[in-house]
Amino acid sequence: MYYIKKRIEVAFAHHLTLNYASKCTNLHGHNAIITIYCKTKELNENGMVVDFKHVKDIVSGQLDHRCANDVVDFNPTAENLARWICEQIPHCYKVSFQESEGNIATYEKDDIQD
Q1: Is residue 113 part of a domain?
Q2: Global pTM exceeds 0.85
Q3: CA 89 to chain centre
Protein backbone atom coordinates (compact mmCIF):
# COMPACT_ATOMS: atom_id res chain seq x y z
CA MET A 1 0.00 0.00 0.00
CA TYR A 2 1.25 3.48 -0.91
CA TYR A 3 0.34 6.53 1.18
CA ILE A 4 0.62 10.28 0.80
CA LYS A 5 -0.24 13.16 3.09
CA LYS A 6 -0.77 16.73 1.88
CA ARG A 7 -1.10 19.76 4.17
CA ILE A 8 -2.84 22.82 2.74
CA GLU A 9 -3.62 26.20 4.26
CA VAL A 10 -6.67 28.12 3.04
CA ALA A 11 -8.35 31.35 4.09
CA PHE A 12 -12.13 30.99 3.91
CA ALA A 13 -15.31 32.44 5.32
CA HIS A 14 -18.58 30.83 6.34
CA HIS A 15 -21.61 31.17 8.54
CA LEU A 16 -23.35 28.27 10.19
CA THR A 17 -27.00 27.42 10.55
CA LEU A 18 -27.49 26.28 14.14
CA ASN A 19 -30.46 25.47 16.36
CA TYR A 20 -28.99 27.51 19.23
CA ALA A 21 -27.69 31.06 19.67
CA SER A 22 -24.07 31.41 18.54
CA LYS A 23 -21.84 34.07 17.04
CA CYS A 24 -20.91 31.45 14.42
CA THR A 25 -24.23 32.12 12.68
CA ASN A 26 -22.67 35.42 11.58
CA LEU A 27 -20.31 35.51 8.62
CA HIS A 28 -16.74 35.03 9.85
CA GLY A 29 -13.41 33.77 8.55
CA HIS A 30 -10.75 31.19 9.33
CA ASN A 31 -7.24 30.36 8.23
CA ALA A 32 -7.73 26.62 8.01
CA ILE A 33 -5.09 23.92 7.91
CA ILE A 34 -6.34 20.91 5.98
CA THR A 35 -4.45 17.62 5.99
CA ILE A 36 -5.41 15.13 3.30
CA TYR A 37 -4.49 11.44 3.42
CA CYS A 38 -4.60 9.23 0.30
CA LYS A 39 -3.65 5.63 -0.36
CA THR A 40 -3.68 3.06 -3.12
CA LYS A 41 -2.35 -0.42 -3.77
CA GLU A 42 -0.96 0.52 -7.17
CA LEU A 43 0.64 3.73 -8.37
CA ASN A 44 -0.73 5.52 -11.41
CA GLU A 45 1.11 5.67 -14.75
CA ASN A 46 3.22 8.56 -13.39
CA GLY A 47 4.35 6.58 -10.34
CA MET A 48 2.11 8.49 -7.91
CA VAL A 49 -0.82 7.86 -5.59
CA VAL A 50 -2.14 11.25 -6.74
CA ASP A 51 -0.18 14.37 -7.70
CA PHE A 52 0.30 16.67 -4.68
CA LYS A 53 -0.36 19.68 -6.92
CA HIS A 54 -3.69 18.23 -8.06
CA VAL A 55 -4.74 17.79 -4.44
CA LYS A 56 -3.84 21.40 -3.67
CA ASP A 57 -5.57 22.68 -6.80
CA ILE A 58 -8.81 20.86 -5.98
CA VAL A 59 -9.01 22.12 -2.40
CA SER A 60 -7.56 25.62 -2.82
CA GLY A 61 -9.47 26.21 -6.02
CA GLN A 62 -12.77 25.59 -4.30
CA LEU A 63 -12.20 27.04 -0.82
CA ASP A 64 -9.27 29.48 -0.68
CA HIS A 65 -10.47 33.08 -0.33
CA ARG A 66 -14.06 31.97 -0.84
CA CYS A 67 -17.21 31.85 1.24
CA ALA A 68 -17.88 28.15 1.84
CA ASN A 69 -21.64 28.80 1.88
CA ASP A 70 -21.37 29.84 -1.78
CA VAL A 71 -19.49 26.65 -2.68
CA VAL A 72 -21.40 23.86 -0.92
CA ASP A 73 -25.09 23.15 -0.41
CA PHE A 74 -24.84 21.96 3.19
CA ASN A 75 -24.05 23.52 6.58
CA PRO A 76 -20.28 24.15 6.21
CA THR A 77 -19.11 22.94 9.61
CA ALA A 78 -15.54 21.69 9.89
CA GLU A 79 -16.89 18.14 10.09
CA ASN A 80 -18.97 18.48 6.93
CA LEU A 81 -16.15 20.21 5.04
CA ALA A 82 -13.73 17.43 6.00
CA ARG A 83 -16.11 14.81 4.55
CA TRP A 84 -16.75 16.87 1.42
CA ILE A 85 -13.03 17.36 0.74
CA CYS A 86 -12.42 13.63 1.19
CA GLU A 87 -15.05 12.95 -1.46
CA GLN A 88 -13.36 15.37 -3.93
CA ILE A 89 -9.87 13.81 -3.89
CA PRO A 90 -9.00 10.55 -5.68
CA HIS A 91 -7.84 7.78 -3.32
CA CYS A 92 -8.54 9.96 -0.26
CA TYR A 93 -9.47 8.06 2.89
CA LYS A 94 -9.05 10.70 5.61
CA VAL A 95 -9.14 14.49 6.05
CA SER A 96 -8.35 16.58 9.11
CA PHE A 97 -9.78 20.09 9.02
CA GLN A 98 -8.34 22.56 11.54
CA GLU A 99 -10.41 25.71 11.34
CA SER A 100 -8.62 27.39 14.24
CA GLU A 101 -6.05 26.59 16.91
CA GLY A 102 -7.36 23.67 18.94
CA ASN A 103 -10.48 23.06 16.80
CA ILE A 104 -9.93 20.10 14.50
CA ALA A 105 -12.51 17.85 12.83
CA THR A 106 -11.50 14.59 11.16
CA TYR A 107 -13.41 12.48 8.66
CA GLU A 108 -12.26 8.98 7.75
CA LYS A 109 -13.94 6.61 5.32
CA ASP A 110 -15.01 3.27 6.79
CA ASP A 111 -14.40 1.18 3.70
CA ILE A 112 -11.52 1.73 1.33
CA GLN A 113 -11.61 -0.04 -2.02
CA ASP A 114 -8.08 0.91 -3.12
Answers
A1: no
A2: yes
A3: 9
